[in-house]
Amino acid sequence: MKNAESCRGLSAFNDLAENYGHHLPGSPADLFYWLLEQPQDVVLSLLAFGAAHSVNAVEKKFTDRKKGIEQANQLGRALRVNMPAWFETTGESYFKHVNRTTIELSLAEARGSEAELSVRAAAKKSEAVTIADRLVAGTGWIPSPLRIAPAEAEQELQAESIAEDEQFPQAAE
Length: 173
What we know:
The chain is mainly α. It has helices at residues 8-23, 28-37, 40-52, 66-78, 100-111, 113-120, 125-136, 151-167.
C-alpha cells in the first residue's frame, strides 16, 4: 500500500490497536486474570479485534485462497460493513493504478455510457484519471474487488470450487 495513512480502515484499525495497548496488562502472564475481570463486551471486542488480523480478502487473481474471500464476504455481510464508508474511489486511490480500459468500464458501470465515452475521448491516461475522479466523486461507487459479494454470488463461487475440486482431486496421502 503506497499511501497507507490515507486508508480510513487501516487508521481505525491502528487506533484500536493503540487503544487496546493502553488497557491490556504489560505482562502476558497477567492477561488471563485481567480478562477474567473484564465485562463480556470488552472480552468479545478484544477477541473480534484479534480475529480481524486473520481475515484475508485478497482478490482471487492474487491468491488461491478462495475460502478466505468467501469467509471475508460472510463476515462483511454479517457485520453489515458499508465499504463506501471505508474507501472512496478517487484518481489517487484507484484510477491511477488501473489501465484505461478498466477506467472506461468502471465509469460505464458507475455513471453510464456517456461517462465512459468522456473518458475514452481523453488524450492521455492522466486526463482520463482526472475525468474519472470528477465523475465518480460523491457517488459511493467502489470497484468490484472492494465490494462484499451478495450471498447468491458466493454460492456460485462455491459451486465453481466444488467443480474444480472434482476435476482435480487431491492425491491420497
